[in-house]
């Protein structure tokens, strides 16, 4: 397995989780965590598993993660298994929304 964890972070918490995920996945094959601004399209072509993570900012992923998601061509990820996660302040469900939910919705619209 070749896993790629692409993340954005504001205070380092999401990066720590991304590194931990990559470390855990590394027990089953190659895995690396890459900041969203440093990710390369070639890395996606080599990956079997893609994990996307972002802090929740104003109920959405960060602007950098949103731009990354908008740049993905429909159908280009259909062969990949995917997962997503977020970090956010703990609030009552009615007052918060998850960046992971927004990422998942975008991935579904791309055919994942």
Question: Secondary-structure map with pairings?
Answer:
Blueprint: E1 2-7, H1 13-25, E2 30-35, H2 41-46, E3 49-55, H3 63-70, E4 81-87, H4 99-109
Can you describe this structure?
- The protein is an alpha/beta fold.
- It contains 4 helices and 4 strands.
- The chain has a 4-stranded parallel sheet with strand order 2-1-3-4, sandwiched between helices.
- Helix 1 links the parallel strand 1 and strand 2.
- The mean pLDDT is 92.
Profile the largest sheet. 4 strands, parallel
User: Could you tell me the number of beta strands?
Assistant: 4
Q: Which structural class best describes the helix and strand composition?
A: alpha/beta
Task: Give the tally of structural domains.
Answer: 1
Terminus-to-terminus distance: 18 Å
The CATH homologous superfamily: Flavodoxin domain
Q: Give helix % range.
A: 25-40%
Q: Please identify, by name, the CATH architecture.
A: 3-Layer(aba) Sandwich
Average pLDDT confidence is: 92
Strand content: 15-25%
Radius of gyration: 13 Å
Number of helices: 4
How do the strands of the widest beta sheet line up side by side?
2-1-3-4
